[in-house]
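Practice set, problem 2.
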Amino acid sequence: MLLPILSHSIDQRKIATVVSVLSNNGVIIIPTDTVYAIACSIKSAKAFEKICRLKNVKPEKANFSFLCNDLKNISEYTSPFDRSIYKLLNKNLPGAFTFILEASNNVPAIFRNKKNHWHTHTQQCCCPKYY
C-alpha cells in the first residue's frame, strides 16, 4: 500500500494508518535526505527482525538508527549528557547528521549493541517517532 504523506497537506487518516501498521509489528518505508529508509516501532522486536531479514543481516550484528521527534524525545533514550552535547545537537538538528549517543535502559536491548550505544536522527514531523 502506498500512502503519500506531504508535509504541507497532512491527512490524519493516513497518519492513523501508519500508526496502526507500526503498532501491529509492521514495517514502513520513509524518504530521507539521501535514500529511503525501512522503519519500524522501537517497541517491536518482530518488526526489527523483519527488517533484519529484508536487509539480510543478523539482528545481533545489526546497527540501526532511529528517529526521534525532537531533542526532548532524544533524552528519553539516552544517558544524561552535558550542555555542550545538547548545544551541538540543537545547532545541527534537524539535519543530515547521525549522532552516536550512550543508550539508556529505555532503548530495547535488541537495538543496543554491546557497547550500549545507538545512532539517532531527529526530524520535525507529525509522524510517530520511528523509523
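Problem 2, part (b): a different protein.
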Amino acid sequence: MKRTILFLFGLFLFQGCSSCNHKDKVLVRNPAIIYRVKPEFLDKVPVQLDSTKKEVQSYRAPTDIKSNGGSLPTALEDGFFLDNIGINKNTSYLQITMETYSKLSQAPARDEMIKMIMKGDPFIEIYNTNMPKTGTEEFIDKINKLIKEKDFSSFNKIK
C-alpha cells in the first residue's frame, strides 16, 4: 500500500512538472549571475535599492572593497561580468568610483547615497545562470564558453 501511494505521489509530481515552461531549468539556491553594464557605470559603486528604487536597501562598506577583491566583479567574455556582490534588477550605481569609495573611512548615509545615484538604467542585460557560483577556473571557463557560443538557453533572463 505504501509503495502504491509513493508511486502515485511521484507520478503526480512528475505530471505537475511536465506542464512547466522551464522544465529543463533547475532552481539553484545561490546561482551565479552574469551581466553586461553600460560603460559609464563600469567603475562605479553598486547599491541595492528597494523595488520602488527610492531607498537604499544594501551596500558594501568601503573596507569591503579595500580588503576583499571578491567584491569586484569578475570580467568574462564579450563584456559580461560575473557578479560577486548581489546584482539584481534593482541595482543602481553611485556617482563615485570604486577607487574613491574604497578610500572613505565609512560609507555615506543612505539618504546621501540616494542623492548620489546615477541616472538611467545601468544594465544591458542580466542573467541567472542556474548554476551554483563556485568561482573556480573551470566554472569561469564554462561560463565563458557559453557566452562565446551565445548559448543562454539554460539561463533565466532577468533583464
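Answer key, part (b): The beta strands are 31-37, 44-49, 56-59, 74-75, 81-82, 91-97, 123-132, 156-157. The two ends are 49 Å apart (CA to CA).
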